[in-house]
Design brief:
Helix content is about 0%, strand content about 50%. It is built from no helices and 11 strands.
Length: about 120
Amino acid sequence: VQLVESGGGLVQAGGSLRLSCAASGRTLSTYAMGWFRQAPGKEREFVAGISRAASTYYADSVKFRFTVSRDNAKNTVYLQMNSLKREDTAVYYCAARSDGFLRTTQIQYDYWGQGTEVTVSS
């Protein structure tokens, strides 16, 4: 599975962005998908995820601001980010887990994209 993220960029605090993660090579419908982020000087952390059955889970820091969704027909997963804060600045990665069950640690994911950078200015 090849994953390609897009949609990152520079946005003012309070603004919105929608990240996309497009897959090729395999259909994503049977995979669990996770979004992770890594800020400068920090560890990569879980942000949000969606299972094969479309159950979702969010880190407390983004709950009620971010929404993860999937469009299996387009083989794409999205991360809608609203009310962005400076602390959301990071490189965002999508990842796929083959068994379809949602997990929150990066070691449990099998495939990764190259990342897309999000910068939130004040």
